[in-house]
Amino acid sequence: MMKVKVILSAIALFCVGFVAQAQQDIKIGYTNVELLMDLMPEMEQIGADIQDYQTQLQTNIQTKAADFERKVQAYQQAAQTMTEDARAAKENELRQLQQELQKYEQDAQVSYQRKLQELLEPVQQKVFNAINSVAAENNYTHIFSESAGNSPILLYTRDDDKFTELVLAKLGVQLPATPNN
């Protein structure tokens, strides 16, 4: 029994030594990329630009939809006096126009997402470059994003971790003051 305790103690000491060594080699930081992006001064202009682009797309969709609606109404008014073949041809044409309108709406959504990504990319790159610089300058070995979608991936951090503030300073951006309660 004594021999087992000695072996377990030796294993425990080895593990404690290993954990202490690992803590010296690993420095983990965390930040909130969304917060960093939101605080970038460029975001205001990007918001205005993407809003203008969205308005332009919506105007084009509304114009095409109104045009389609007019053609449908014209058909409905003239349908009684048309021959069967003319009605079938017109209905076929209207179906095709409706499909084109739906495709245009889908293409507009894709175009909107592409434009948004194109506008955000330089700011994202700037933020990620600052994160990498701050991590290297402060000897961090790992940086985690505070959240990935809705699932936080942060397992542990000290309350005094100032990584986000260091990145903001690197970017020359101020963290807004929070009112004291």
From TrEMBL:
The keyword Coiled coil applies. Gene3D superfamilies: Skp domain. The keyword Signal applies. Keywords: Coiled coil, Signal. It comes from the Bacteria. Residues 65-114 form a coiled coil. It holds the Pfam family OmpH. Residues 1-22 form the signal peptide. Transmembrane segments: none annotated. Belongs to the Skp family. This is OmpH family outer membrane protein.
